[in-house]
Amino acid sequence: MNDKTISVDFDGVIHKYSKAYHDGTIYDEPIEGARDAIRLLRKKGYKVVIFTARSNFEEIHQWLQQHKIVVDDVSNVKPIAVAYIDDRGIRFTNWRDILNYF
Fold first, then answer.
1. Where are the domains of the chain?
2. Are 51 and 11 a contacting pair, CB within 8 Å?
3. pLDDT tens figures, 37-51
4. What's the Cα-to-Cα distance from 1 to each of 6, 9, 59, 82, 98, rounded to whole Å?
5. What values do phi and psi take at 13, rounded to 5?
6. How many CA atoms lie within 13 A of 83 on its CB side?
């Protein structure tokens, strides 16, 4: 485990994503507080990696630059990390709890 990497989902965590997939573009503003939180995590020494299902990294990099959000990497390969921040994640405790969730 890399104790200095935090993996952050893009859509719904950094990019507001108010219309969901819509037309596949990155159309929304950042979620309030995203830029400052990422800046603070990096200042504390964490490597922030965006983990996304999107494949157009150039569009993501342009959007990040436009909104002055600095990250260490963008990937569609799940990085080894100390934490994964995702708006659709379910914290695993045991399989009984997971099945009860659904």
1. 5-101
2. no
3. 999 999 999 999 999
4. 11, 18, 29, 6, 24
5. -125, -40
6. 9
Coil, strand or helix at 95: helix
CA max distance for the chain: 44
What CATH number should be reported for the domain whose range is 5-101? 3.40.50.1000
Q: Following DSSP, what letter does each residue of 18-83 receive, concatenated?
A: TTTTTTSS--SPBPTTHHHHHHHHHHTTPEEEEE-S---HHHHHHHHHHTT---SEEESSPPP-SE
> Quick one: CA dihedral 20, 25, 29, 32, positive or negative?
positive
Backbone angles phi, psi at 61, to 5 degrees: -60, -40
Q: Residues 6 or more apart from 73 whose CB is under 8 A from it?
A: 47, 49, 50, 79
- pLDDT tens digits for 55-100? 999 999 999 999 999 999 999 999 999 999 999 999 999 999 999 9
